[in-house]
């Protein structure tokens, strides 16, 4: 009787511990990107799709892993940028600064980088000028294909990080917790960068996959002629999120 009783107690204790651990770790696996202030992107960037270089119809084209139809935010003057290519490419990365709502200028010289199939990242080198808080920019990735240069762009703004978020980040060294903290604060670029730090090279990882699916929900076309392009882009983002975990 006592052996049966002890076995039952031990089983309940193990079950309780497992449930507690699952409850503890569940928030780490859940993306929480809910952009509360979706300012529409300009005509420079908000058109929806990329044709990609000539390839199989089933291949996903060059896709930037950042909002295109609305402005995303970063609190970094040297953010990390990420995208997806389905085949090895040499990309040309460049940032442009908005001088006015309708005028842009090249912020610095372009950066050329060879990429492998999957998720790629671009980090700004030390000699690259720092971005300025309060200013709006867009980043651009170009790929040269026979007879055409294919370009994708995404708009972003540099903002001050709230002190409450800074204080919260000081309480943890866990990359996934930091990613969720940034996501909850609407800081897309930091949220994804932290997620990718925990993923295998060329992959999103589970938290990155969740983040990409979250931000894709908020992509929407302002002009009717762009609706199909945006829908196609959302479909590509969902495929990337599922295939590149």
TrEMBL record:
Signal peptide: 1-31
Keywords from the UniProt entry: Signal
Region (Disordered): 35-58
Bias-annotated ranges (Polar residues): 42-58
Database matches in InterPro entries: DUF928
Protein name: DUF928 domain-containing protein
Organism in which the protein naturally occurs: Nostoc paludosum FACHB-159
Lineage of origin: Bacteria, Bacillati, Cyanobacteriota, Cyanophyceae, Nostocales
């Amino acid at each position: 009787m006592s052996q049966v009783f002890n076995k039952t107690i031990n089983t309940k204790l193990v079950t309780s511990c497992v449930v507690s651990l699952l409850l503890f770790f569940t928030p780490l696996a859940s993306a929480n990107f809910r952009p509360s202030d979706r300012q529409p992107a300009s005509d420079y960037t908000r058109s929806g799709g990329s044709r990609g270089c000539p390839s199989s119809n089933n291949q996903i084209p060059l896709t930037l892993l950042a909002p295109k139809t609305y402005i995303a935010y970063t609190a970094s003057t040297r953010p990390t940028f990420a995208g997806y290519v389905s085949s090895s490419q040499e990309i040309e990365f460049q940032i442009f600064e908005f001088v006015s709502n309708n005028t842009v200028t090249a912020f610095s010289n372009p950066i050329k980088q060879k990429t492998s199939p999957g998720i790629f990242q671009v980090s700004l080198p030390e000699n690259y000028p720092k971005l300025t808080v309060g200013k709006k920019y867009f980043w651009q990735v170009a790929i040269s294909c026979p007879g055409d240069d294919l370009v994708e762009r995404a708009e972003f703004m540099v903002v001050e990080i709230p002190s409450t978020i800074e204080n919260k980040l000081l309480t943890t060294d866990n990359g996934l917790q930091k990613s969720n903290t940034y996501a909850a604060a609407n800081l897309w670029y930091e949220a994804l960068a932290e997620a990718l730090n925990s993923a295998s090279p060329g992959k999103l990882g589970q938290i990155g996959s969740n983040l990409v699916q979250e931000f894709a929900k908020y992509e929407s076309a302002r002009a009717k002629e762009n609706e199909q392009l945006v829908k196609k882009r959302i479909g590509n983002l969902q495929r990337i999120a599922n295939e590149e975990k």
